[in-house]
Amino acid sequence: MIYLYQNDKEYDYDVRAIALAFYEREKIIAVSESEFARLSAGEQGEENIRFLSLIYEENKITGRLFDKTEADARQTVCCDYHDHEHCRNEVCRFLYRLFSEFTGRTLPWGMLTGIRPTKIVMKWMEELEAAEGVAPEQKRHSGQDVKMPETVRASLEKRFSEAYLADDQKARLCVQVASREKAFLDAHPYEEEYSLYIGIPFCPTTCLYCSFASFPVSKFGDRMEGYMQALGRELEFVSEAYACKKLTSIYVGGGTPTALSEEYLKVLMEQIHRLFPVEKAREFTVEAGRPDSVTREKLQTLYDAGVGRISINPQTMHQETLDLIGRNHTVEQVKEAFYMARETGFTNINMDMITGLPGEDISHVHGTLEEIFKMKPESLTVHSLAIKRAAHLNMEMDKYQSLVKGSTNEMLCAVDEYCGKMGMLPYYMYRQKNIPGNLENIGYSIPGKECLYNILIMEEKQDIISCGAGASTKYVFPEENRIERTENVKNIDHYVNRIDEMIERKKKYL
Ligand code: SF4
Predict the structure, then answer these.
(1) What is the position in ligand 1's atom list of the atom closest to the CA of 259?
(2) Please, what's the b/e burial string for 20-49 (b: 16 or more CB within 10 A of its CB; e: otherwise)?
(3) Which residue, judged by its Cα, is nearest atom 3 of ligand 1?
(4) For domain 2-103, which CATH number applies: 3.40.1000, 2.130.10, 3.40.710, 3.30.160?
């Protein structure tokens, strides 16, 4: 627990974010000056109670972090702290140093708590190009990596490490991913186009760590018809509103789209084809995430509909973990679904895995990677376990506390090594809040098999119009450097009953 006293709340958000990066899941309690003095002068000497005071004075902030043992750290930063635009990074560095001094620890990503670190490097690279006068048409090329001069790469890494106090490995990764993303985006005229996301919120069962819009088929299967009708109306509206724009990519996620019955999956594919110019889109992905939802017929339906990329997700290749996290399928089923997809003709299959699952250590990660290596997917997306508020894992934490050790850098290094052996390179990356270990999620792929949609959603370069329960739409206004969002309700029944309202929300921007 951290008792926090501040005489100003200017940086309250950053204070809490950095405190939580060092002390995951810690309670932070804001108290008044007199309460702070009383509590910190009290007798009880519990080591896990800490006291943080931040005193804002004209052009100066003084911080002190201490507990009832000898541990006591103090730092000061001099800046016009009201000037957020210029001082925020400086204040965050000061907060990071305060916690680092107190704990004796550094964090791989330093003071960065944001979810899109590559956006920072992307912006720097664009500024460099603008300074050199590179015109957009000069940037169009094959989409493969354009080799960045060594001096530029080194200076970007150095700038990143110094600005955010990140370690060298993360700085290297961030610059590598950003430069691959940039090469890929430069090759595609995405600015005038849009992408379509379709959410199918059904799953065979609910995974322990899930915080998505997901409803088990056994309980909610009878809602499929109503859902498909409402979704059809929303898709129809989007297809008309965006008729004059080119479609870059279609991504059907969820939930688990293949949790739809064979009949409704066909209906969905027909609907998409009737309403959108699928054959002109650059990419069409459908998640077939849960192997227990995959059948040969469903795979054929997707293949015949022109789906080019699918995802079959083991998360782990250890049966006891699969059972523990409620996935309700076997390791064998993962392999069967994968090879069935290959036999159907899919040549771009992604697999997702999670590091830091309850009860798993580095040896489990090696075991999972070894099995994935044998299957040879075209891409692998690696998530560090995030404990989201709405997930069962969080709500039943007392039960799982001793099993949740979190993801470690060692695990991510093992992933990187195996991906290298499979000929894959990292091509997109993001971070989430509530990842024990404060690490990242990375998408690796064989060159040429990257998922354009994943890059677009991370770099926020074009409108992503999302339909379905819990779907979040993003409208990008590049000239104004502005992004607007509209959200659909998560609950299936509410989505079906309030579909007119969901469409109205979109009308404001479309
Ligand atoms: S398969 Fe994905 S969406 Fe479905 S319950 Fe599991 S984590 Fe959630």
Answers:
(1) 4
(2) bbbbeeeebeebeeeebeeebeeeeeeeeb
(3) 255
(4) 3.30.160
